[in-house]
């Protein structure tokens, strides 16, 4: 109170809000200008503006007759910028720096609390500012001077021959095909600095007319700073209570909110989530989680949420699979989108994912190859589908990630029945699109068993396997002795017979069964990897009954022989790839689908007359172990066997070799002068050229 008594009110006056220049009035803040700068010579001044960016460029005239102006410096700058030739494109037509350009930048992002005030005859008239711009000198003429300097240097570097110029015109062009842009990539591109610069450059300049301070047009525009009507009806904004008036004078600051770190676009806090409608909450949760039991969903939505409303909303964005809710495919892949891996449209992706979801309604296990073969989608897309709702198990397939929710099924039989009808409709649609076979539509017997049967500990599985081996050991031993006595099998089949009755003692990684089983022959009637029928023990780990081993060996030997007669040199990785392609071309139930291990395949390669070439790879190589194993056909039965053997000996000592070294070594070892065609034939059989050097096939490390 004492402070108020010491500061008495001297005068009261009315305040008016002028609206005539609303969203049109800008405040320009000029730098301290030198004595040689003048604003009187308006004939040499121009202005232009980009309204959306609130960007202004002003061109001011410089008084070149002022005693403070350095004429020699001005002439030097004009000469550097425009050169000796003056034309219409010259920046300084007078060959003298007689003008200066100013560019603007925003001084404040929020100008809502700033206004221009005019006091007249006891009245204060306020006009809100639309922007505050700071003008700074622009030095783009220096960039132009640098460009001129580089052009002059390029012109002075004459003397190049016409042949050099012709060679310069020939340039290598790399053609790349871009993948379809995903939504995340598009958002990153839109927010990038280059994109914003491009958008700003696309806005056209609007040229303005400048009017001096004493011009009649300026005087006319200045009248708009005064309120055109003094009536209270035009100034209702100022008729407020004291608290509202103070709030208008000092609005709450929003800068603190803007300074808070912004969360990623795909992250939403639970507090923000619960401010949304219930349907949007459920959609966002399911889109992020993919698979969720109903009880977990209710716990995330918070206490007091009506379960009936949740059930009504969840059916709009998810489907029931094994008592759990899985987000619908069209929610993850909206219309007019495409796969980030293959560019396949969303409609095809939705059909493929619906097939995976439908398979999990039939069984807890799904084989990835079966899905890929039916849907004809790329492996990356199929893997995405499976990772949404299942977990990979080694040598078994993909298991649904959540246990069967019996509680929900018992409490809501009407929902279960309705979802079953929906799945029947989806199944009918899939049958037409994919021409599904009967074996795809028949539910597995394992579904009828109780859920507890699926949960078998590792110790129980080992004990069950040992018991079955003991039961069948006698019978297997008799078959083995009978085959040995008959002597029908060769060395390869004998090795396979021994492994068919002996427990494997090699490391798992060395004798692991290759992933070459056919999807149509996969038996899903197993419990955690154990076959339900006792007679199926013979086919565990890729071993066959004695009667089938000969056929497997013959088929495998025929494949290896024909492959190496065509390729001559193969890495183990490439051989396995070709073997998988060969399996894909075979009919279902073929003997090779029994399971071929890496060791079995390598032994067969050595038995067919091939040798392993110990190529000295560089120490820093990033090749996989299968790519480091190189095999070559030693004798093909033609006239080039000796030449190929010499060539392979060379690469057993060198990782890469020049052509002239190979040619000289072949001529020396073979005792004859080989022509170019013969050397090309040998190199074509075994090698590839890269960067002027020759490598064995499959050993090039880019």
UniProtKB/TrEMBL annotation:
Q: Which InterPro entries match?
A: RNA_pol_III_Rpc5, RPC5_C
Give the start-end ranges of region Disordered. 146-169
Every copy of the DNA-directed RNA polymerase III subunit RPC5 C-terminal domain together lies at 444-702
Question: What's any GO biological process attached to this entry?
Answer: tRNA transcription by RNA polymerase III
Q: Give residue spans, biased composition: Basic and acidic residues.
A: 146-155
The Gene Ontology CC terms held by the record are: RNA polymerase III complex
Pfam families per the record?
RPC5, RPC5_C
Q: Which PANTHER family match?
A: DNA-DIRECTED RNA POLYMERASE III SUBUNIT RPC5, DNA-DIRECTED RNA POLYMERASES III 80 KDA POLYPEPTIDE RNA POLYMERASE III SUBUNIT 5
The protein in question is named RPC5 polymerase
């Amino acid at each position: 109170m004492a402070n108020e008594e010491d500061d008495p009110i001297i005068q009261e006056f009315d305040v008016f809000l002028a609206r005539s220049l609303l969203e049109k009035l800008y405040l320009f803040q000029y730098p301290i200008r030198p004595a040689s700068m003048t604003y009187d010579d308006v004939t040499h001044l121009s202005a232009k503006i980009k309204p959306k960016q609130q960007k202004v460029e002003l061109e001011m005239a410089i008084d070149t007759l002022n005693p403070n102006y350095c004429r020699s410096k001005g002439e030097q700058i004009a000469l550097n910028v425009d050169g000796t030739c003056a034309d219409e494109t010259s920046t300084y037509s007078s060959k003298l720096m007689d003008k200066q350009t100013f560019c603007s930048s925003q001084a404040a992002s929020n100008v809502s609390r700033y206004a221009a005030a005019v006091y007249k005859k006891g009245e204060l008239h306020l006009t809100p500012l639309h922007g505050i711009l700071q003008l700074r000198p622009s030095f783009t003429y220096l960039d132009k001077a640098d460009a001129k300097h580089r052009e002059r240097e390029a012109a002075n570097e004459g003397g190049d021959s016409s042949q050099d110029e012709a060679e310069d015109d020939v340039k290598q062009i790399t053609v790349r095909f871009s993948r379809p842009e995903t939504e995340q990539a598009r958002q990153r591109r839109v927010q990038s600095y280059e994109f914003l610069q491009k958008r700003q450059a696309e806005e056209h300049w609007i040229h303005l007319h400048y009017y001096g301070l004493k011009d009649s047009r300026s005087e006319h525009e200045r009248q708009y700073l005064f309120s055109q009507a003094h009536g209270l009806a035009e100034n209702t904004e100022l008729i407020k209570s004291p608290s509202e008036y103070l709030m208008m004078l000092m609005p709450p600051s929003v800068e603190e909110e803007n300074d808070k770190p912004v969360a990623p676009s795909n992250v939403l806090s639970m507090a923000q989530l619960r401010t949304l409608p219930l349907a949007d909450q459920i959609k966002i949760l399911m889109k992020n989680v993919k698979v969720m039991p109903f009880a977990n969903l209710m716990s995330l939505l918070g206490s007091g949420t009506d379960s009936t409303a949740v059930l009504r909303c969840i059916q709009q964005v998810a489907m029931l699979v094994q008592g759990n809710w899985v987000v619908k495919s069209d929610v993850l892949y909206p219309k007019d989108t495409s796969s980030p891996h293959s560019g396949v449209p969303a409609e095809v992706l939705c059909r493929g994912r619906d097939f995976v979801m439908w398979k999990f309604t039939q069984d807890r296990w799904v084989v990835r190859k079966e899905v890929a073969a039916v849907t004809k989608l790329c492996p990356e897309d199929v893997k995405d589908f499976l990772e949404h709702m299942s977990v990979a198990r080694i040598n078994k397939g993909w298991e649904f990630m959540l246990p069967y929710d019996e509680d929900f099924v018992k409490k809501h039989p009407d929902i279960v029945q309705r979802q079953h009808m929906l799945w029947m409709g989806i199944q009918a649609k899939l049958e037409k699109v994919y021409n599904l076979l009967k074996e795809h539509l028949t539910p597995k017997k394992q579904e009828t068993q109780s859920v507890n049967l699926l949960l078998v500990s590792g110790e129980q599985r080992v004990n069950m396997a040992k018991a079955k081996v003991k039961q069948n050991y006698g019978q297997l031993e008799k078959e083995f002795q009978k085959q040995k006595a008959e002597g029908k099998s060769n060395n390869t089949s004998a090795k396979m017979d021994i492994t068919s009755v002996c427990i494997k003692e090699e490391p798992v990684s060395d004798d692991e069964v290759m992933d070459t089983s056919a999807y149509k022959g996969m038996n899903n009637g197993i419990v955690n990897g154990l076959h339900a029928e006792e007679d199926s023990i013979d086919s565990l780990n890729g071993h066959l009954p004695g009667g089938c081993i000969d056929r497997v060996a013959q088929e495998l030997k025929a494949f290896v022989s024909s492959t190496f007669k065509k390729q001559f040199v193969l890495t183990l990785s490439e051989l396995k790839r070709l073997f998988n392609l060969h399996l894909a071309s075979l009919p279902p139930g073929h003997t090779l689908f029994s399971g071929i291990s890496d060791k079995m395949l390598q032994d067969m390669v050595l038995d067919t007359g091939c040798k392993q070439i110990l190529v000295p790879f560089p120490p820093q190589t990033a090749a996989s172990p299968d790519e480091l194993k190189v095999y070559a056909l030693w004798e093909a039965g033609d006239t080039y066997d000796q030449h190929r053997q010499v060539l392979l000996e060379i690469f057993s000592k060198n990782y890469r070799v020049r052509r002239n070294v190979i040619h000289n070594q072949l001529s020396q070892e073979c005792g004859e002068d080989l022509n170019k065609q013969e050397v090309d034939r040998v190199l074509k059989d075994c090698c590839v050229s890269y960067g002027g050097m020759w490598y064995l096939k499959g050993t090039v490390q880019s």
